[in-house]
């Protein structure tokens, strides 16, 4: 797996996490986490990276990968749908209060897309 892709997801997490740490809706960090998003991450890590994250998955918890003190227990590349997500991007496609951040976000998204597509054929081959 591309180290560059993993590094880009970490950069993206470093960019999106502060938005949620200072949640504009005052819902608090990780308020958009959900059990189904954790389950998707579990499956993604297994299919794409051949990594079994079940030892970190607390099935009895409301949010299985969430640690109440430290936040998400798994690395950003195992949860791309969470890492790339902010409500402003989801709802409007941009952050109306932060043009610079929006520009950085889409630069990184472009780089992530590039490295994901670069891996795509390899991933398809693994799925056969
Ligand atoms: S995605 Fe939006 S609403 Fe959800 S935690 Fe982040 S800033 Fe708050
Ligand atoms: S995988 Fe992590 S960031 Fe995504 S919903 Fe679960 S706890 Fe939240």
Key features of this structure:
two-stranded antiparallel ribbon, mainly alpha, binds iron/sulfur cluster, about 55% helix
Structure notes:
The chain is mainly alpha-helical. It has one domain. The chain is built from 5 helices and 2 strands; from the N terminus they run ααββααα. Strands 1-2 form a two-stranded antiparallel sheet. Helix 1 (3-21) packs across helix 5. The longest helix has 29 residues, at 99-127. It is flat, with a radius of gyration of 15 Å. It starts with a helix and ends with a helix. The mean pLDDT is 92. Bound molecules: iron/sulfur cluster (2 copies). One iron/sulfur cluster is lined by residues 19-20, 23-25, 27, 31-32, 86-87.
Strand order of the largest sheet: 1-2
- Give the proportion of residues in helices: 55-70%
Q: Could you tell me the radius of gyration in angstroms?
A: 15 Å
Bound molecules: iron/sulfur cluster
- Spell the H/E element sequence: HHEEHHH
Please describe the biggest sheet, giving its number of strands, its sense, and whether it closes into a barrel: 2 strands, antiparallel
Enumerate how many helices there are, as a single number: 5
- How many structural domains? 1
Oligomer: single chain
Mean pLDDT: 92
Strand-residue fraction? under 5%
Quote the distance from N terminus to C terminus. Answer: 18 Å
Structural class: mainly alpha
Shape, per Cα inertia axes? flat
């Amino acid at each position: 797996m591309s180290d560059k892709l993993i590094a880009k997801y970490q950069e993206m997490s470093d960019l999106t996490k502060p938005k949620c740490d200072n949640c504009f809706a005052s819902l608090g960090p990780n308020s958009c986490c959900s059990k189904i998003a954790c389950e998707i991450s579990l499956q993604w890590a297994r299919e794409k990276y051949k990594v079994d994250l079940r030892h970190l998955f607390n099935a009895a918890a409301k949010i299985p990968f969430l640690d109440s003190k430290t936040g998400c227990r798994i690395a950003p590349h195992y949860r791309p749908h969470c890492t790339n997500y902010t409500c402003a991007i989801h709802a409007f496609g941009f952050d109306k209060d932060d043009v610079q951040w929006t520009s950085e976000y889409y630069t990184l998204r472009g780089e992530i897309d590039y490295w994901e597509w670069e891996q795509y054929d390899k991933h398809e081959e693994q799925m056969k």
